[in-house]
Amino acid sequence: MMIQDSFGRIHDYLRISLTDNCNFRCFYCMPDEHYDFTPAPLLMQADEIIALAKLFVAHGVKKIRLTGGEPLVRKDAAAIISALGQLPVELVMTTNGSRIREMMPVLAEAGIRTINVSLDTLQEEKFLLATRSKVYKRVRENIDLLLDQGIAVKINTVVMKGFNEAEINDFIAWTKLTPVEIRFIEFMPFSDNRWRSDRVFSHQEILGSIGRAYTYRSIEPRLNETARRFEVPGHQGSFAIIGTMTAPFCSTCNRMRLTADGKLKNCLFSTGETDLLQALRAGEDVLPLIESCIRQKKEALGGQLDQHFEQLDAGLLKNRSMITIGG
Q: Omega into 243 within 30° of 0, i.e. cis?
């Protein structure tokens, strides 16, 4: 039995946030310096994560992505990753890359073959400004470590006018001799993340910047692709653009998001969510809640971003902050 919405979209990809905690403080993700992390008892415990994951896999989920916050700061992350690695599912992860080295044995043992690393700048001083963390060199070394171990690396880069749009071709240059996929992401609005429409550097602007320095060509899209992929002839790596604000991919969306406190969101921008954790703790049948949540999914962007981004009033959006959703 598959999990399907009212538009006929099969949902076989689950993103699980392990924690809303993070050792970075990126302004576009966290609301402010004084953010209060969710108390541990309100988070899904390891056995609850595994139980819910098994239920989703039994109903057609083929891919699970671990997110956060920063998933690897959770103290029992290794145990959770090891257990999920036993399921018949493709297990992947999004991380800030700071804790890869110490977690490398468990990542390899769990069979993780692809990891997304969030990195918005290739300048150490700007990295400190963005993350308030002094581990730029460690992150770069850990990316190299992943590649050395044969793990595919995708770099998630949120492009923001006035911050890093001038670095786009520095990232492309990196792909010349390094087999990474750079994923340029349009700046998206979430609760209290200082989003402004004039900071969005669009899909077309990104391609325009690259086209002034490089010749590139499209790569055939994969099923349920969120990104439009490209390659520069002669480069070992590639690049892609996630154009949520200007070129959304909702028609083929197959994603569900389980927050660290056990709420199911049927879309990154959905106004509502379904509490699976409390139902699980009460001994209730969780499957009908999952099916109902996904059936209520809007056709596109949670039904909230239906106008051009330049006319969007971010203050009217009903959503969580990015760090509490898990991306």
A: no
Nearest to 200 by CA among 233, 235, 242: 242
CB distance 129 to 155 below 8 Å: no
How many Cα atoms are found within 13 Å in the side-chain-facing hemisphere of 286?
24
In the numeric block, which tokens belong to residue 151?
Answer: 């793990």
Rounded distance between C-alpha atoms, residue 325 and residue 327, angstroms: 6
- In whole angstroms, give the CA distance from residue 17 to residue 166: 32
Describe the strand order of the beta sheet including 238-242 as a list of residue ranges. Answer: 217-218, 228-231, 238-242, 181-186, 152-159, 114-118, 90-95, 63-67, 13-17, 255-258, 263-265, 274-275
Name the helix (H) or strand (E) containing 77. Answer: helix 77-84
Report pLDDT digits (tens) over 125-175.
999 988 989 999 999 999 999 999 999 999 999 999 999 999 999 999 999
Closest CA to 100 of 77, 129, 132: 77
DSSP-derived 3-state class of residue 173 = helix
DSSP run (H or E) holding 280? helix 276-281
- Model pLDDT for residues 67-114, shown as the tens digit of each residue: 998 999 999 999 999 999 999 999 999 999 999 999 999 999 999 999
Tokens linked to 91: 């297990």
pLDDT classification of 224: cutoffs 50, 70, 90 = confident
**What pTM was estimated for this model as a whole?**
0.91
What is d(CA 118, CA 43) in angstroms, rounded to the nearest whole number?
24
Residue 1's SS3 state is: coil
Q: How far is it, in rounded angstroms, from Cα 31 to Cα 195?
A: 11
What pLDDT is recorded for position 57?
98
* Planar angle of CA 150, 154, 155, nearest 5 degrees: 130
Place of tokens 């098994």: 54
**How many C-beta neighbours within 10 Å does residue 292 have?**
12
Of 231, 239, 230, 302, nearest to 266 by C-alpha is 302
Q: Which residues of 267-279 are buried (b: 16+ CB within 10 A; e: fewer)?
A: bbbbeebbbbbeb
Q: Rounded distance, CA 56 to CA 300, Å?
A: 23
